[in-house]
Amino acid sequence: MMESALPISYFDDQKVREVIGLRYNEPAWLIESRVKALSNYRTLPDERSPLFNKYTTANLLDTNRLMIMLDGTHELDDELKRRRDEIRKGIVITQAGRSIEVKGLSKSLEEEGLVIKGIMDALKDDESVEIIRRVSSRIDTGEDKFLALEHALFNSGLFIYVPKGMVLDEPITIIRSLPSDGTLVERNIVYADVSSRVRIVQELYSGYSGDDNNASNGTQQAYFESNECYIADNADVEFITTQGMSSNIAYFTNRKAFIARDARFNSYLGLFGGTLSRCKVDNMLEGFGASAEHFNIIFGDGTQAFDLTANMMHLEASTRGRVLSKAIVKDTSRSLFKGMINIGKDAKGSESYLAGHAIILNKGARADSIPALEIETNEVKATHSASVAQIDEEQIFYMMSRGMSRDEAKRAIVFGFIEPLLKRLSMDARIYTTYLVDCKWRGRQLMLRSDDVMREIWEVEEESRRIESDIFEKHYKYR
């Protein structure tokens, strides 16, 4: 009988074939893809670019302490059950350990072609597995060590297919709960077909009791995730992620989006929890007129470390890209932002913007921001900016002289710092971020909930939208 969790060092080519491939009755092409990915994982360094070696925090992860979960179910705790039950709009997917539950997927949507299932189940379905095989050829696991790990050892995740022309007005919400021990390796695939539209909200949580249990038995808990979005011609996808994991979790994610002609992709990543977060975001603008925006907010305290890479790759003409990162660090936490705009030789008429800004709340914290441009053609617009600054004591003094406490003044400055980014987010992402930043500031649990604070934020947001609408209507009447 095979154990339910095994160390990474256990796996070699033969064990991948036997323990994972044959265990789940996978097609031969996928088994060989796993073997190749494992080889890449063994040989690749934590950070491929020598420029970033002295900055990276990926080497803080001790892979010898990771136990990869192969089996086992995990029950939602009461708080997450409450969170699931209070979401009354759209489709709600609950992932607890390796188990998956889908609520709100109507029969009519299934008959129209919407597919939502666990990726291991999708590999047993002829139509789904053909899509997975086709898109898998797009991934080069030789470009990143942890992408290779995710493709070699995944045994859970989601497959979402939105058929041609389908417009989902309500979001698909994913609540991911990690078990109290062990390491999950997951692969999620979203395929939005021609002229479809979908909004996905992903909430990442873990157990909040006994955060030091794993430390006592010598293991490290981690969540490895490969997120792949394939956006066909004229499709529109928004992907919102909030990460509120507990303080013992290492979170590693590779996020790739392939964006076709006239398609749009907006992504947002809010990083608040975990002990170590390493995120690599790659947007490939492959079709004429494609556009993509990526925004992220980092809020670190204690000894947290965040390592974020964001690449915007313009491969065809008249594409549009925007990357904006904001980081807040306090105590002895660290943040690293590495951004790259690449405009290829066939991408004339493209426009791109990249910005990484950080604010340091005390002297023990550290932030680095490293933007870069690679331009291989002319007739383009590309700009980047970066800044790292300590909080302004003169601003604090001014606010305190007007009756604020020091803590209230610092909080107001932090919200003023992220406000330009919040304005660019969709309403859901803006409200969720405001709520989680407030939770982090006040030391509350990093979990979205429909409490008085959330209701107050919604009311302020709706009032703001109403005022803006009134101003427009009055202006229109006078014309």
Label this structure with key terms.
single chain, 479 residues, alpha/beta, nine-stranded mixed β-sheet, 12 helices, 35% strand
In the predicted model, the low-confidence regions spanning at least 5 consecutive residues are none
CA radius of gyration: 22 Å
Number of domains: 1
* Apparent shape: globular
Number of strands: 21
The SS-based structural class is alpha/beta
Q: Share of helix among residues? A: 25-40%
Largest sheet: 10 strands, mixed
Number of helices: 12
Q: In which order are the strands of the major sheet placed?
A: 4-3-7-9-11-13-15-17-19-21
Average pLDDT across residues? 90
User: Between the first and last Cα atoms, what is the distance in angstroms?
Assistant: 77 Å
Tell me the fraction of residues in β-strands, as a range.
35-45%
Pfam families: SUFBD_core, SufBD_N
Protein name: Putative FeS cluster assembly protein sufD
Family: Belongs to the iron-sulfur cluster assembly SufBD family.
GO biological process, one term: iron-sulfur cluster assembly
